[in-house]
Design goal:
The chain has a 7-stranded antiparallel beta sheet with strand order 1-2-11-3-4-9-10. A 4-stranded antiparallel beta sheet has the order 7-6-5-8. It is α+β, with helices and mostly antiparallel strands. Helix 2 crosses helix 4. The mean pLDDT is 81. It contains 6 helices and 11 strands. Strand 5 and strand 6 form a beta hairpin.
């Protein structure tokens, strides 16, 4: 009986609310840290298409570094290299700001990534960087040739890439019109300052810089760091 009434004592209630405050404080700290990290430093993305096969498959989950801090606080060149896989965000031209970016991360955390302020899933694409600002890029038989800005010679995309990859080259009819976006041929394009040329590893009918044109630096949201799922293919993407 004494134990029953102890629960209603002032000391016991004070102790209970103290424990509750500690729990809520730790939850708030975890929430703030998660929101800051996921909003400004790293992000994860689930591939919902086959456009990056054979390197990345549909359903793969990839961890990306985030260039949010670079875009928000610094006016300098992105640390992007040819051959790297990046996350392209076509909604990034929208002015977001630090607090809105962090709040979006918090909202996605509370809704298990189902709700975002920016409707991210409609604007996010995983692509490979082929050309950097100042490069001249062209394509023949689905293979890109690149002439760097400070070079007199052009090279295949593989000679300039620091990452090894094998694009999926489709077989097309001899009567395919080479003026079409996915014909496998493309006239030389010179990339302006702050422009990047990105392609899918699957060079068939998939949207990339062949249809969009070059993407701006602000549209590159991050670089692929790690494929963490499925576990059988865990490692560098």
């Amino acid at each position: 009986m004494a134990g029953r009434w102890r629960r209603y004592s002032y000391a016991e209630q004070k102790s209970y609310f103290r424990r509750l405050r500690i729990i809520l404080t730790w939850l708030l700290v975890f929430f703030v840290i998660y929101s800051a990290v996921s909003g400004l430093f790293v992000s994860n993305h689930v591939l919902e298409t086959k456009t990056m096969e054979p390197g990345l498959a549909e359903g793969d989950r990839v961890l990306f570094s985030s260039y949010a801090v670079t875009h928000l606080f610094y006016d300098r060149e992105l640390p992007v290299k040819r051959g790297q896989i990046v996350l392209v965000d076509h909604g990034a031209e929208e002015k977001r700001g630090v607090f809105k970016t962090v709040f979006d991360a918090a909202l996605r955390f509370c809704t298990l990534q189902r709700i975002s302020l920016f409707e991210r899933e409609d604007t996010l694409f995983v692509k490979r960087v082929i050309g950097l600002p100042g490069d001249t890029v062209s394509m023949q038989n689905f293979v890109v040739r690149v002439k760097p800005a400070a070079d007199n010679y052009e090279y295949t995309e593989f000679e300039l890439s620091e990452d090894d990859y094998i694009p999926r080259v489709p077989q097309v009819s001899l009567y395919w019109d080479e003026t079409l976006p996915f014909s496998g041929s493309m006239e030389p394009k010179i990339l302006a300052e702050g422009e990047f040329f990105v392609l899918s590893d699957d060079r068939s009918v998939t949207n990339d810089s062949r249809t969009w044109g070059p993407v701006s630096a602000v549209s590159i949201a991050g670089r692929a760091l790690l494929r963490y799922w499925p576990l059988t293919r865990f490692g560098s993407p």
